[in-house]
């Protein structure tokens, strides 16, 4: 990580900043996420506060400038609390290629270690830039969710990717035949 980069967890009083970055991500990259600008711009500020409390949203900054976010969460069902989820990844244009995105992924993995046995994520199959970022951090494709998202009239498939931190003994990530070559 560059000396100018810093990462911190956003807290409840940071809800406006989180909202600003989140709405910007949804506005500029509407097909990269499961949510929509329309839905989240109409949501009350409490819903952003709630997300900061019920999950961990990390802010990446360069100097004093907030430049990226990512969210780490765990399911609420007791049978699923060994899983971590990485969602809502966004790095502002001015910080792309700077290593900040990598620093955010690393920060999620460090937070997850010792708490969950793997971190999973979904990425639209056409989002080559994001897929490569995750692959560089050891995330492997284990499946494709066909027509996972529908934005307007368009359907988008998603890769399901996982990064094991503490695999059960003798276990390997299953490779479905259709994606075994990737
Ligand atoms: C996805 C995102 C967080 C990645 O951050 P970044 O700073 O752009 O990431 P990097 O610079 O590390 O680049 C990632 C990879 O894409 C490659 N890349 C760079 N520009 C690219 C382009 N235009 N097209 C395809 N790949 C590209 C890089 O070479 C790198 O590949 P490598 O790891 O094999 O070298 C950022 O681009 C972003 O916020 N995009 C919009 C929102 C989004 O798609 N979020 C992800 C939702 S799952």
Q: How would you explain this protein's 3D organization?
A:
With 182 residues, this protein is α+β, with helices and mostly antiparallel strands. The protein has a domain at 5-121: Aminopeptidase (3-Layer(aba) Sandwich). It contains 5 helices and 7 strands. It has a 7-stranded mixed β-sheet with strand order 1-2-3-4-5-7-6, sandwiched between helices. A hairpin with a 2-residue loop joins β2 and β3 (65-73). α1 (15-28) crosses α3 (45-54). Residues 25, 29, 32, 89-91, 96-97, 101-102, 123, 127-130, 132-133, 136 line the site of coenzyme A (COA).
Keywords:
182 residues, binds coenzyme A, single chain, 7-stranded mixed sheet, Aminopeptidase, alpha+beta
């Amino acid at each position: 990580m560059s000396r100018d980069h810093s990462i911190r967890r956003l807290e409840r009083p940071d809800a406006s900043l989180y909202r600003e970055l989140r709405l910007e991500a949804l506005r500029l990259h509407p097909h990269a996420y499961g949510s929509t600008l329309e839905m989240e711009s109409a949501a009350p500020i409490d819903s952003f506060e709630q997300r900061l409390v019920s999950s961990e949203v990390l802010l990446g900054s360069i100097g004093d400038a907030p430049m990226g976010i990512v969210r780490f969460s765990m399911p609420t069902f007791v049978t699923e609390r060994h899983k971590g989820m990485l969602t809502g990844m966004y790095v502002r244009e001015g910080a792309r290629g700077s290593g900040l995105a990598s620093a955010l992924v690393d920060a999620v993995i460090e937070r997850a270690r010792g708490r969950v046995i793997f971190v999973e994520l979904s990425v639209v199959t056409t989002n080559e830039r994001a897929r490569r970022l995750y692959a560089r951090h050891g995330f492997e494709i284990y499946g494709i969710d066909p027509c996972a998202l529908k934005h307007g009239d368009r359907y988008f498939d998603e890769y399901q990717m996982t990064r094991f931190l503490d695999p059960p003994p003798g276990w390997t990530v299953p490779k479905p035949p259709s994606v075994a070559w990737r």
